Structures are given as structure tokens and as C-alpha cells.
Amino acid sequence: MISRFFKNNGITRKDVNLGIGDDGAVVTIPDNCQLVVTTDTLVSGVHFFPDMDPRALGHRALAVNLSDLAAMGAEPAWISLALTLPKADIHWLEEFTAGMHEIAEYFNVQIIGGDTTQGPLTISVCAKGTVPTGKALTRSGAKNGDWIYVSGPLGDSGVAIEAQKGKHELTPRHLATVKKRFEYPSPRVAAGQVLRGLASAAIDISDGLLADLQHILDLSGVSATINVDKVPVSDVLKEALTPEEYLPYVLSYGDDYELLFTVPEDNKGMLEINLKQYGVDAVCIGQIKGSGGEIELLNNEANFEFRAKGYKHFS
């Protein structure tokens, strides 16, 4: 089935020596580069609604993996797909693969293999990319005094999920906008490559701002102060909900796939100039301060109490 829907479809990269059809793929890694590999699994009813549009699902399944590569500063190149299906629904597969091919073509990514099996709808994607040797971004480089940035507004995806569950009543326009942010996330691939050599640490926001920031703090051995009032929020959220309603989504819900990164003082000016060339208006939301892995929250310079920390599997 992988061969039927993916072989001879989509882009063909010159560095793919052997693609779909054999027991494994063969690719050529550019000189002076390292391979970056990431894998994400999406499970129906856990990571997406069972009736989600298959074209959007194809886009999302690939986008969340490309976001991981972006957080490492990598250039995406190749994808493997493991697809578990309740039944062989040809129309569903055509739409799903169309959504995946569209984003793959946009980012010059080739699907080089995979597997299909029968069972509950589950999508596992393994994405591979390259980064110049020694230049990969990690979560462990944040230093005292570094500034903390996010690459775009947070909270829309969480509101979209809960609105579809009936928690919030949104206008059709507001619902359509936040739903698109969830179904068609835009991985910050170009921004990730700009961050190489400028950012000290980076991660993509999948589990929530505070939870993902905590990963950086734990691996870097530092603490942070976050100005809640500085965290970017979309105009739609500001129109649809009160701050008390949307802040939990902004701080802890996740599924935003923006980049969260730290930058030394000396690199701030160059970073902001370079990112704006790619249409990314990154926002400084706080600073690394001290050690111990603690997060201090301020709202208009006053202490801000907030308990929820983000999504955890098996919690």
C-alpha cells in the first residue's frame, strides 16, 4: 500500500539512491553534515479526533515531525511512514496522502519508505534531516542571562480542541481560524536554521509552553522568569475569550508547534533581523536567571500563580 500511494508520487531528491520498494532505503548524507532523526506517533482519539479530515491529518502528521527537526536547526530531507488502518478506505487514503504530499513538496522532503498494517488508526512518522557538523540546536545550552523567545502566538490549538468538545462557544469564524491552527500547523523550518549559531537552546512547543520550557531548564541546569503578559496571543483568542479563559491554553495546553528558544544578549539584534527576513516576528517573553530548574511567572511585574504545567503521557 505504501508503494501504491507514495512510490513515484511527490518529489524525487537526488540524494535518495534507493527509495520505496526494497527492505530499506539508501540515501546520501551531504559532506560535513550530521543526520538528525525524530519520530512521532499520532493515535486516533488521543492526538486527533477520529473524524478529522484526512487531508488535514496527512499534513499534521508530517508537520509535527518537521517541527522537531526545526527545533534542532536541521534541514528536512526524508520521511518514513508507518500507517495502521482499521480498513483499506481508498478515498481516505487518497486524501491523507494528498495532504502529506502537499507539505512534503513545500519543504522538499521525499517519502522513502514505510509500512502498513491493520488495527486502530495510528500514524507514525520518522523524519530525517541534516545539520552542519556540530551545529545542531539542543535543549541543554541555555545560560544565565540568556533571553527567552517564542516564534509566534500560542493557545489557538488548545482552544480549537476544547471548543470541539463543547467547552467554549466560538463564532464560526473564530472556530475556523483556531481549528486551522490545529489541523494545519506550520513548522518553523526556516527559523530553526536561522537559529543555528545564534540560539543557545531550543525546543518546539508540543506539550505546552511551561512543560517544554522545563525541559530546557532541566537539561541546562538553570531557572527562568517568564512575563506572562509578554507571551504572544492571536487576535482571534483575544476576541473570543477573556484573558482568564485563554491563559491556561497559552501557558500549558500545547500543540502549537512554535519554537521556544534562548538567545545570549550579544545575539539578540542579529537574531531579530534574520528572523524577520523569513516573516517570523519572534517575541522575547523572559530571561534565564540562576540555577535549580525553577520557573517564576510574572504578570505586569507582579507574581502570577499558575498550577497546570502541560501535557504528559500516562499521567
TrEMBL record:
Residues 21-131 form the PurM-like N-terminal domain. Pathway: Cofactor biosynthesis; thiamine diphosphate biosynthesis; thiamine diphosphate from thiamine phosphate: step 1/1. Mg(2+) 5 binds at D207. Mg(2+) 3 binds at D23, D68, D204. GO terms for biological process: thiamine biosynthetic process; thiamine diphosphate biosynthetic process. One of its GO terms (molecular function) is magnesium ion binding. Its EC number is 2.7.4.16. Mg(2+) 1 binds at T39, D40, D115. Mg(2+) 4 binds at D23, T38, D68. Residues 144-293 form the PurM-like C-terminal domain. The keyword Metal-binding applies. It catalyses: thiamine phosphate + ATP = thiamine diphosphate + ADP. Catalyzes the ATP-dependent phosphorylation of thiamine-monophosphate (TMP) to form thiamine-pyrophosphate (TPP), the active form of vitamin B1. PANTHER family: THIAMINE-MONOPHOSPHATE KINASE. Belongs to the thiamine-monophosphate kinase family. Reaction mechanism of ThiL seems to utilize a direct, inline transfer of the gamma-phosphate of ATP to TMP rather than a phosphorylated enzyme intermediate. This is Thiamine-monophosphate kinase. The lineage of its organism: Bacteria, Pseudomonadati, Pseudomonadota, Gammaproteobacteria, Alteromonadales.
